[in-house]
Design brief:
The longest helix is centred in the last third of the chain and has 18 residues. This protein has one domain: Alpha/beta knot (3-Layer(aba) Sandwich), CATH 3.40.1280.10. α1 runs parallel beside α2 and α1 runs parallel beside α4. It has a 7-stranded parallel β-sheet with strand order 3-2-1-6-4-7-5, with helices on both faces. It starts with 16 loop residues before the first strand and ends in a 5-residue tail after the last helix. The chain is 28% helix and 20% strand. By secondary structure, the protein is of the alpha/beta class.
Length: 173
Amino acid sequence: MRKIVARQHRRSAAHRIPVVVVLNNIRSLFNVGSMFRTADGAGIEKIWLCGITGAPPQGQLSKTALGAEQHVPWEHARDTVAILEDHKRRGYQIVLLEQTDASIPYEEFIPRFPICVVVGNEIEGVADGVLPLCDEAVEIDMAGIKNSLNVSVAFGILAYHLRTCAKKHKIVC
């Protein structure tokens, strides 16, 4: 019988995929910390903390991030729309993780790197001015009675989908 041993991975910033994430008014510091940890694991290049989204250092955030907030580049900005407009000008495909009338299942989404993923508030979704800037909206199919996942869980599913697509196309990983 083969012995299985856990191991630690250490990757450098050179292994990041060309994806930035905009967290638009995320209320829970636990969710923000979880998304930092997921972004680190998936190799996301940067997180933008926008609007009321909390920023490090904060205890609840650090508790779930487990130090990832010190390794994933991040910035805080009040104006989500300005950040998205800047990324759009720089050629990023703006992708909204949200259930809309035009959303497609995330598995059908074909990314055009670089990508800027927008994740909205846990209850209200994204701010009004965000929708017109988005090139695509993706959602996660729900089979149960609840119509959505926790925002950090949904982000994790999309982040690893993007990582898989980047690896498939040999885009930095």
